[in-house]
Amino acid sequence: MLVVVLSIATPGFLSAANLRGIVEQVAVVSIVALAVNQVILAGEIDVSTGSVVAVCAFVYGNIAEMSGGSLVPFLGALATGLLLGLINGVVSTYGRVPSIITTLGALFVYRGLVLLLAGAQVLNLAADSRGFGQGSLLAIPVAIPVAIVVLIGLCLAMDILARHTTLGRNVYAVGGNPRAARMIGLPVSLVRTATFALTGLCCGLAASVMIGQIGQLQATAATGLELKVVAAVVLGGTSIAGGKGSTFAPVIGALLVGVILNAMTLNRVPGTFELLVLGALILLAVSVEGIRSRLRERRPTE
């Protein structure tokens, strides 16, 4: 319905180039949202992703300037993301600090480190280091951007994780009823820490795609990304209380966010309205989910 309305009201919205641009632009948000979805399913939340992506992108860019190519910088970004995700997870679960406080603090600490260590630095990547954002595969009948291939591969990996691994099943059990999960001996803290580590790893992957797409990086990179990620997850239908949600839903939510922001750009809506719209979408999605939960709770007593 939204796409139909926008295609009528917005000239150029349905053009192939614009639709391809939307899909490529939401790849970074989708990659991170797929992992944050696991954190929320486990009953926690991570709002530090924008700064983690920025740190990983600067690690990628600096290694790329020294060594060239994409593989070594990519491994460096993954290792950095994994480390930062583990720190968030350990502090939140084993340190028993609420995850919203832990990751909010991490959001500012990691961004502060980027501003302090690379505030005046502007990275310009060579073409051979932009494979994750500029490369294409399978040119039959049309070339598929590497970023889309990466996103599809991650979707499949997340589906395997959720359906066919003990960790994936434990994520739902821990988020749905943590007390019951502890009583039957599930490693609640370990499961939650693993979801934070997974998020950090995906931030490293998203940073490799992002810096490959834009080719240039400043200290303010990925500012506000965490808001788009949370909006994608809740708009996708994942319960903010944990335990309920689909593996692929964040991608649908990310596409919805991307479509709305793209339509705003085409209609020349000032960029200052972006935060207002994203915040309103999050409040709307959480409110609807809360009303539906109350209605479900009342149903057996009526």
Could you explain the architecture of this structure?
The protein is built from 13 helices and four strands. The model has no long low-confidence stretch (mean pLDDT 88). Strands 1-4 form a two-stranded antiparallel ribbon. The protein has a two-stranded antiparallel ribbon with strand order 2-3. The chain has 302 residues and is mainly alpha-helical. It is 72% helix and 3% strand. The protein starts with a helix and ends with a helix.
Strand order of the largest sheet: 1-4
Q: What structural class should be given to the helix and strand makeup?
A: mainly alpha
Question: How is the main sheet built?
Answer: 2 strands, antiparallel
Percent strand: under 5%
Tally of alpha and pi helices: 13
Following the backbone from N to C, one meets helices and strands in this order, namely HHHHHEHEEHHHHEHHH
Q: How confident overall, as mean pLDDT?
A: 88
Q: How many individual β-strands?
A: 4
Helix fraction bin: over 70%
Distance between the termini: 34 Å
- Unreliable sequence segments: none
Radius of gyration: 19 Å
Shape annotation: globular
